[in-house]
């Protein structure tokens, strides 16, 4: 059940259900031969071994089942403790996929409208250097089409400055185009989604996500704070490459303060659930119309980014917390992410009822290659019309 707005109750204890939900299997069977994807699993294992990566977790799912679930390596270099299916990683900007869904849930329940100007919803907020920025809407924020200078104040996050200390400077961000007219990726501005939740539902964004996504989907180890991450005994450590090998690194707490942009911690088991949910496995939690709204292209993203250099990408857009591509003739939904010491990649092919997630506890360039390799493996074993 969706929690509007009961999550606002102070001191409430969230008790996980005794029985976790099973996927709704009313859909048609997948067209994919999952046995044929073992070559991708073997490739990933070989590449991870060749790079001597500390740890990797990967899943391939359909809406009906988890088809492959694999883990390799260690939680922390130089210590015992293997990665397993419940080991928690920082998923970085893949957190934006949850935020897009939060925005859609608020629209679905009549809290806000996609195309309602945002400033009246957030009294005292000012955006951009030009009056045209007063027209920024929730859709613009969720799709990085606010018209503000890209990556506004991400440098301050990198320097360890927290979101509350940055938010009141958003009126200084240059306006580079009218809202909706251009794409400009954001972390700080994107996190205004949390402000809308907290202002209108009187609850913390992290509590809203827990009550309306994590718990209903059975994402048992998912969380949204540095305290929860540090309290998790089965958490992987971040790693950096220096002097020819991988070494444990440190967490940048500032990226937890932009929860919609990069605040989620999760295991590969959790992320398998999230992937299945986005394939339509749990319609009582995420309705088909809601999924269609967050996966629908909003603004073209024809430049920049490692994903635009994948040979199969024909066109690219940003939706609501997701990237969308036409890839060798088929529609693909994707997001990647990286924070200090972690990389994550997640991709859906809804038409084929298949998705893949991979988590790394290292900032490895291998992450740039896993999605096209996976997609090419899938498409090569199909007879597409």
TrEMBL record:
InterPro entries: Beta-lactam-related (IPR001466), Beta-lactam/transpept-like (IPR012338), Beta-lactamase-like_AB/R (IPR051478). Residues 50-369 form the Beta-lactamase-related domain. The keyword Hydrolase applies. One of its GO terms (molecular function) is hydrolase activity. Keywords: Hydrolase. Residues 1-26 are annotated as: Disordered. Belongs to the beta-lactamase family. This is Serine hydrolase. It comes from Pseudohongiella nitratireducens. The lineage of its organism: Bacteria, Pseudomonadati, Pseudomonadota, Gammaproteobacteria, Pseudomonadales.
